[in-house]
């Protein structure tokens, strides 16, 4: 319908404008922080611009919920100030129909954010870190699609999957002699940082001799090279920057090794519920385009939106910390904030339209 597309177009334009402003501010602060490295001669302006372009997907995903809230408040508020919402209602457009149009727009925005977080942000963050740290690595690295190759003196290390906090899975270490001939091959199922080195686990070491080869097995073995946790840190991405699939695999790795995974589980569910957060932020903006709020200035709505966004972040942190302390499931701790604000959004919509009447009128109100 034309009305639906008109509402959705305004929501998209408002969200895009707010996103452009917030991401632009975030990128500006990153640029200022990188100027010191440029003055030190680590890299020049073209490398900084490449780095900023690769950091953009992360900032878009980070600011999308707040941008959706602010964009919807400003765009719908502009419609209210121009009496367009009143005209829609006078022409027979029900509140439920406007909410459906807004909900459809919110789903589209949430889908874009999910696709960026799942398929674009992880790869762009890896490339950004490579650009930023290429001159600070103690060795030569080659990042391929199917693993990471690192040259460490006379050893070549292949890591199939590099995980946060220095953990890794699927390690192969090729020991070469001075003439570049293979002397031994060490395979490890996993590795974790221990002190300044790597501790390899479930190790199978094959030593090549002039006449025959020998094979040894070790439950644990310390990597003898210079491959430290600090070296690997420049190649790592945080759990928030990982795709949902990779983060789920990382959680399985932590559980298999009986490691504390509470923080990573919280991040995982925050990523999973982030599209829901975007939808709720859009719905939360709708009540402020109704009733007396249609006479509010854009600055007032902007301030209200910022306060709501900060409240969401603060309440989310309090509930997740409280849930961690009392042992509540991580999924429920993250979902609680979304459900709280979703209920608040519907309460405000109902309150704006019916005043102080009983909540028993809500089913009849939603049909109007």
Helical percent range? 55-70%
Strand content range:
15-25%
Q: Secondary-structure element sequence?
A: HHHHEEEEEEEHHHHHH
Strand order of the largest sheet: 1-2-3-4-5-6-7
| Overall domain count | 2
Top keywords for this entry?
60% helix; 10 helices; elongated; seven-stranded antiparallel β-sheet; 17% strand; alpha+beta; 2 domains; 368 residues; single chain
In words, what does this structure look like?
60% of the residues lie in helices and 17% in strands. It is of the alpha+beta class and 368 residues long. The protein has 2 domains: 2-134 and 258-366, no CATH class; 140-233, no CATH class. A 7-stranded antiparallel sheet has the order 1-2-3-4-5-6-7, with no helix packed on it. Mean pLDDT is 82; it is low at 135-142 and 356-367.
């Amino acid at each position: 319908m034309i009305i639906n597309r008109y509402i959705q177009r305004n929501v998209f334009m408002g969200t895009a404008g707010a996103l452009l402003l917030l991401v632009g501010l975030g990128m500006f602060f990153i640029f200022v922080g990188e100027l010191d490295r440029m003055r030190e001669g680590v890299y020049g302006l073209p490398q900084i611009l490449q780095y900023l372009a690769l950091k953009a997907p992360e900032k878009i995903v980070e600011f999308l919920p707040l941008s959706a809230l602010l964009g919807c408040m400003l765009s719908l508020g502009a419609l209210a100030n121009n009496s367009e919402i009143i005209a829609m209602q006078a022409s027979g457009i029900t509140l439920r129909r406007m909410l459906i149009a807004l909900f459809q727009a919110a789903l589209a925005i949430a889908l874009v954010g999910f696709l960026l977080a799942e398929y674009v942000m992880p790869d762009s963050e890896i490339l950004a870190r490579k650009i930023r740290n290429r001159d600070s690595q103690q060795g030569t690295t080659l990042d391929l699609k199917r693993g990471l190759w690192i040259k460490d003196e006379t050893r070549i290390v292949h890591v199939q999957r590099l995980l946060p906090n220095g953990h890794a899975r699927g390690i192969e270490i090729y020991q070469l002699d001075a003439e570049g001939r293979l002397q031994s091959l060490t395979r490890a199922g996993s590795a974790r940082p221990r002190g300044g080195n790597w501790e390899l686990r479930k190790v199978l070491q094959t030593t090549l001799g002039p006449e025959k080869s020998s094979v040894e097995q070790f439950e644990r073995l310390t990597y003898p090279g210079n491959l430290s946790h600090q070296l690997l840190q420049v190649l790592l991405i945080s759990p928030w920057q990982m795709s949902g699939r990779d983060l789920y695999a990382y959680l399985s790795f932590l559980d298999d090794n009986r490691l504390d995974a509470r923080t990573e589980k919280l991040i995982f569910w925050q990523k999973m519920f982030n599209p829901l957060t975007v939808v709720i932020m859009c719905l939360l903006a709708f009540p402020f385009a109704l009733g007396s709020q249609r006479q509010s200035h854009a600055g007032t709505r902007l301030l209200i939106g910022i306060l709501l966004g900060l409240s969401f972040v603060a309440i989310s942190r309090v509930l997740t910390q409280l849930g961690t302390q009392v042992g509540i499931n991580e999924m429920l701790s993250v979902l609680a904030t979304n459900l709280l604000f979703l209920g608040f959004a519907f309460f405000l919509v109902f309150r704006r339209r019916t005043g102080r009447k009983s909540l028993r009128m809500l089913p009849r109100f939603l049909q109007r």
